[in-house]
Amino acid sequence: MNDIAHVTPTFEDVLAAAARIAPHAHATPVLRSRTLDALAGCELHLKAEHLQRAGAFKFRGACNAIWSLDEATAARGVVTHSSGNHGAALALAARTRGVACHVVVPEGAVAAKLAAIEAYGATLHRCAATIAARETRTAELQAQLGAELVHPYTDPRVIAGQGTAALELLCTPERFDAIVVPVGGGGLASGTALSVAARSPGTRLYLAEPAGAAETFASLAKGERVTGFTPDTVCDGLRGTLGEINFRMLRDHGAQVLTVEDADTVAAMRLFWQRTKQIVEPSSAVALAAVLKHGPLFAGQRVGVVLSGGNVDPDALPALFARA
Amino acid sequence: MNDIAHVTPTFEDVLAAAARIAPHAHATPVLRSRTLDALAGCELHLKAEHLQRAGAFKFRGACNAIWSLDEATAARGVVTHSSGNHGAALALAARTRGVACHVVVPEGAVAAKLAAIEAYGATLHRCAATIAARETRTAELQAQLGAELVHPYTDPRVIAGQGTAALELLCTPERFDAIVVPVGGGGLASGTALSVAARSPGTRLYLAEPAGAAETFASLAKGERVTGFTPDTVCDGLRGTLGEINFRMLRDHGAQVLTVEDADTVAAMRLFWQRTKQIVEPSSAVALAAVLKHGPLFAGQRVGVVLSGGNVDPDALPALFARA
């Protein structure tokens, strides 16, 4: 375990991350829609991270981690366990620096996602579909290759990188009443908290969480991290366990959680598609759904929403839409 | 029948249209994708008309027609027959000026599309699902209300308006080797020909046409307008009959037609979705598919593609993707 994993990142780290990733990551546009504003009863500013490289905000954190490595560490490569957006993001980020990237993936992972990770040049390492097998294989690769672990959401370099999305949003001339981001493991949420606290402390931070995976809601309500949930949600990017460091940062910030039913998330995804011709994945649409379902909280206000990613398999869509 | 229907528009009309619609229409972005460039073997500049108001380039022509009306004509309103993108575009354009809009729609038209037209404030007039019934009802409304007919693609004001999309593309610093646009009735195609001829005469103009509705291909090959086809294509926006004025303009320009099978169009739509998170309708994707299928024509060149619209019904998608 590397020491950095125990350091809580600060807003200075977010600023450093912004400078570090600028040559590689997109400064994504902020989308507006008259129709959505009318439906939501507020002024929505939608940070389009589905247009980020590799299709999700995850590239920010991964890129910051990769370009934070000293030369000797970089030469030994990085490793992570994720068959989703973080795996692809780390693979692409590693390629921007010519760093070897190893991704531990469980048996049964979606073939298309594995192909995407490989297409970005990473090496796949298959293991059994249990957390234990995954962690064992990852530890082996760390020991064997000296590869640096880049955890999807507890790594402070990742958290600082994810904070750059909200930083860009808050650098626009608008003064936001509220910012809404999805929460799963908590990397984006805790990074966003850093940027909000430093740049716009009067802005309320809301975390949109699937009702079928509401451990952040439970944890913040209880004042201690609650784990052991079995997630049941179409938001495949939000099924991870809230990290300890992420929990502490969100608790200390005073973030509030809005839970959202899957049917509302899918309806928001459809609506967004029809009105803006943009594909966002359910794990992004949950944030828009939260605003639409909790109208009175936002009435007449200026609201920033981070649309976290757009990686949807076209073939999975009919089943998804059947949920709405 | 109004006299204007017999006047062939010029590039001056396109310039006038650009000024006229500027306060109302979006100057849509031009999208780039490293991945698509690599797949196509050329440099693609994608004019994103799916992000135009009402979701298609049709708003340009409709808006130019509406704002070209003199006060007296405007006071009597406009009429058209289209249950598709032109109907919605004319309804929205009419609303920007407070002009009454009447849309004749056949029995059996898609309910969601009619709802969209009504939501923009137009009055629907239902008729039997034949061309004769449609034309009769339209003529009645012209006579009864004194409403001005705005034909979807033969109206010179509409053609001039559609030409503004290519005008914007050609106002970027890039020098294009080729421009590719979809062709159905020929409004966009003939408007584009005006802009290309005036602004970049060395740029080749290609028209992408579904193989199952290839009357423009047949007409230009024969040197006279061939009609009477029964269209069979998923490109619902390209099933109309090539207009006489549009045929003449395209013939005189020397435009070339590339026919595309529906399976290739749907595959291009999927690819574009996955790589850019943008939804374009099949009638747009046909142009991208034409470039991908005719690689040698464009190898190493700078190619402009007008992505004409993005109005896809999510529920229709599974059947659509089953065609690829």
From TrEMBL, chains A, B:
Belongs to the serine/threonine dehydratase family. It comes from Lysobacter soli. GO terms for molecular function: ATP binding; L-serine ammonia-lyase activity; magnesium ion binding; pyridoxal phosphate binding; serine racemase activity; threonine racemase activity. It holds the Pfam family PALP. It comes from the Bacteria. Gene3D superfamilies: 3.40.50.1100. Residues 22-309 form the Tryptophan synthase beta chain-like PALP domain. This is Pyridoxal-phosphate dependent enzyme. Its cofactor is pyridoxal 5'-phosphate. Keywords: Lyase, Pyridoxal phosphate. One of its GO terms (biological process) is D-serine biosynthetic process.
